[in-house]
Specification:
The protein has an 8-stranded mixed β-sheet, sandwiched between helices. The longest helix is centred in the last third of the chain and has 15 residues. By secondary structure, the chain is of the alpha/beta class. Helix 7 links the parallel strand 6 and strand 7. It is globular, with a radius of gyration of 17 Å. It has one domain: 3-Layer(aba) Sandwich (Rossmann fold), CATH 3.40.50.
Amino acid sequence: MSRQNRIFAIANQKGGVGKTTSAVNLAASFAVSERRTLLIDLDPQANATSAFGVSVPDRHVYDALLGERVMKDVTIPTDLTFLQLVPSGPDLVGAEIELVSMPQRERRLELALADVREKYEIIVIDCPPSLGLLTVNALTGADAVLVPIQCEYYALEGLTQLIATINLVRDDLNPDLEISGVVLTMFDARTNLSSEVAAEVRRHLHGAVFETIVPRSVRLSEAPSHGLPIALYRPDSKGADAYARLAQELRARRGAFDRVIVPASLAAGAVA
């Protein structure tokens, strides 16, 4: 079904790839362009929550998943007028176990979003670094997936498994789920390795890779400690510019890919 609004899941079970950084700053970039945006922190580590200066909220996404509160009651404002946040909290750690016995366990997030989806032009979901029930909930409720990959050795480690999970969700739970593509993150222009990895990923994944590359940036690393996205912390930085361009590119990718094929030679993940 074609919709004017879009839900994007930012997913990669491999940690340290810039997943939360991408979720936070993409959502902020959409909001800066005055698109009504909702960021959902579905990661028990709650890094997307703390990135906005929120410590331990008294209500959060866990309550909505379990049906104890409606989504609008766990949504809070941010410093950006057009961006709201559904925070995470420590209770989410046990949600995977609690969800197992619940009816429609893979659709809890989709059901929780039903009463708020039309309020927003864009919803961004920060997935946990795993392929458990929380990530399956995100993929089931999303329209499209964006996969961050760091420009480092073993860049494609685990990507085959992630794509297999996405395809299983498409086959059994969400046939309209698209793969928006892969975004290269943590690119360091000073090293040959970053350039070699970027070239190799593009050679194997072709058009699935976004043109925008997110640089390794001290400013991007500093921003969460100030409780601000890069668009507010250093709007003139290379990181802010990269996420603004990525947001435009992501918004333009409609029906980008049904499948992304990872060559068997790269299944172990080593690139360089």
